[in-house]
Design goal:
GO terms for molecular function: DNA binding. The protein is of the alpha/beta class. The chain has 10 helices and 6 strands, in the order βαβαβαβαβαβααααα. Helix 7 crosses helix 9.
Length: 216
């Protein structure tokens, strides 16, 4: 089955360019385009895509608010694409439920791969965004109570720490000397217990609670 995508950007040429790049892929279908956040939300409600490729700065409703509505109402994954590499946007976008965050100077192949990765249920951040995200955590005090993690087992807490370090399931399995299937179970359980949408939100939770420490 094809990955169904809605592309939302207020610049018609940019929007059309992204749609063209994605629509020529054999496993991706662009089902709608939107010129602002209101149209993006309406398109997701109407077409039920797998991924919403979403700009941040748009008229009527910005990408952050659109992402918040889409993530709250649907299972559609949100991939934010913007020219603005700013911490506030990264944090707000991820807290709104976005599964990925890329800059608009992303290469064609990386854009296509990002859509596939996010559609598969993984999460993705541009390297520059990741560095800035961790740097921001370094300067902020913990805002999520560590007691919120008491619902996790010891192995689930360990898994969360390794996720926060950026390890894949295969790498976590090697570190914990367990199977990948066991790791997937731990990841699924901790996301459910903490009420988190995906691995990106798990990383945020780990740092906000003080379980993970930048540079450790």
């Amino acid at each position: 089955m094809s990955v169904r995508v809605v592309v939302a950007d207020d610049q018609e040429l940019v929007r059309g360019g992204f749609a063209m790049i994605l629509d020529v892929q054999p496993d991706i279908e662009v089902v709608a385009e939107a010129g602002d956040g209101v149209e993006a939300v309406a398109a997701v409600r109407a077409h039920r895509p797998d991924v919403l490729l979403l700009d941040i700065r748009m008229p009527r409703m910005d990408g952050i608010e659109a992402a918040r509505i889409v993530c709250a109402e649907t299972t559609c994954k949100v991939l934010i694409l913007t020219t603005f590499d700013l911490d506030d946007y990264v944090f707000e976008g991820l807290r709104a439920g976005a599964s990925g965050f890329l800059l608009k100077d992303v290469r064609r192949d990386d854009l296509v791969n990002a859509v596939r990765v996010v559609a598969a249920g993984e999460s993705l951040l541009a390297p520059t965004v990741t560095r800035r995200l961790i740097a921001e955590f370094t300067s902020r005090p913990a805002v999520r109570s560590a007691r919120a993690l008491d619902v996790l087992t010891a192995r689930e807490r360990e898994t969360l720490q390794l996720i926060a370090r950026g390890l894949s399931n295969a790498e976590i399995a090697r570190a914990m000397v367990v199977s990948e299937h066991t790791v997937k179970t731990h990841v699924s359980n901790l996301l459910t217990k903490l009420g988190l949408r995906d691995r990106v939100q798990a990383v945020i939770a780990a740092y906000e609670s003080g379980l993970a420490v930048p540079g450790a």
